[in-house]
Amino acid sequence: MLDATEALTLVTDLSKDRNIRSEWARLARIVDRTRGKHPAPYTPDNADAEYKDLVRRAVSNWLPLVVASTVQGLYVDGFRGDDEEASKRRWETCQANGMDARQVPLHRAVCTLGYSYVVVLPAEDGGTVSLSPVPATRMHAVYEYMDDEWPTLTIRDLGGDRWELLDDEARYVVTGGKAKDRKVDIIGHQLGVTPVVKLSAQYDLLGYPMGDVEPLLPVQERINETVFGLLMAQRYAAFKQRWITGMAPPLDTDGNPLPLPINTAVDSVMVAESPDSKFGQFDASDLGQYVEALEAHVRHLAAISQTPPHYLLGSLVNLSAEALTAAETGLQRKIRERQMVLGEGYEQMLRLVARAEGDVEDTSAQVHWRDTESRSLSQVADALNKLAGPDGLGVPAEMLFEMIPGWSAQDVDRAVRLRSDAAAPLEALMRDLSAAQA
Predict the structure, then answer these.
(1) 141-151 burial string, b = 16+ CB within 10 Å, else e?
(2) How far apart (Å, rounded) are the C-alpha atoms in residues 200 and 206?
(3) Dihedral sign for Cα atoms in the order 26, 115, 338, 315
(4) Residue 120's closest CA among 405, 407, 357, 385?
(5) The dihedral of CA 146, 12, 164, 18: what is its sign?
(6) If residue 138 lies in a helix (H) or strand (E), which one and from where to where?
(7) pTM to 2 decimals?
(8) Which of 62, 97, 101, 199 would give a disulfide with 131, using CB separation of 3.0 to 4.6 Å?
(9) Sign of the CA dihedral 386, 391, 393, 399?
(10) Tell me, what's the pLDDT at 153?
(11) pLDDT (tens digit, 9 = 90+) per residue, 167-208?
(12) Cβ contacts of residue 328 below 8 Å, gap of 6+?
């Protein structure tokens, strides 16, 4: 275990490390883009307030919708393993830490940044094991080798001149801004590993995992440029401009021309006394070209992110169930990949929770993901009847309960319990009848 001086030195060095600072700066830029802080379209030095207002309005942020389309398909509602009681205890620990709801921002951070973390610490004073999701913008894990299961140590920015260091023996909390005022609190955890689990959006052997946002930044900037061009054309060139020739304006006392008092309206007529006067108008800009370019960029965004185009364009017109399923195939494949990779992180977290609770680590436990795919209830019911029916595969109904859309682990447990309670009197009656016949 590190002493206070060693921990303070290590925190000071890591908090100033160039590589860590560079990575945090990269992730902070991704967060800014996701929240709508995009580079502004080109603005000349002499731009007036009206021009700058159009630049501000041109930002059309599509990135949160792309992230949400994936995150809304990721919801853990239980764990399954050979030891059902142990799996149930692990899920109860997650619920006690509010992970029913906290998993949503965790998944959003993972899909946005590419990875984030969960800190698992033993219970204090007989309480519950602590689970704390932490975004990668505030924590950095140091691994001896890229494919190590557990980090060597982690550093976390707690804000307000407070830092946290974790290793395989203790938790070190450093407070105080100035070096002479810094204090180190050391809390041992007895877990034998650095109690931090890294959850990734995808496995990447070439560097840091990439999230959903970073590949879309060039397309998002093109969308903003196109929207700005549309706003400019709409403001200055969407109305037909009229012109007049052959009309001499009156002059003032100094011989300077005065503006003609011409007011045009839909119910007015323009006339001129001179036979040489001519009237005409310039054609308005075709805004349809800008709209087509904008839709093309959005389709590129949909293709790169595997987001169904009708999610972004709203072009849902008379689609059959088969066509809708085909349109969402890419997104469902992406969600299943995220579930597979995230699931490994959750299973590692479960093993660490079991260790923190002094329980046996169940390596067979798997994450159960809620089915969020768009299907009609009648279609699901028909498929389940075929699986459970006498002419089907004879799959036990208790297993099929998990496949009902929208059902949580608690719903499945309740259905199994009610089914068992209802069957008990019938079984007792059949035994009595058999005994009476004998």
Answers:
(1) bbeeeeeeebb
(2) 14
(3) negative
(4) 357
(5) negative
(6) none
(7) 0.80
(8) 97
(9) positive
(10) 94
(11) 999 999 999 877 677 899 999 998 999 999 999 998 877 778
(12) 308, 373, 374
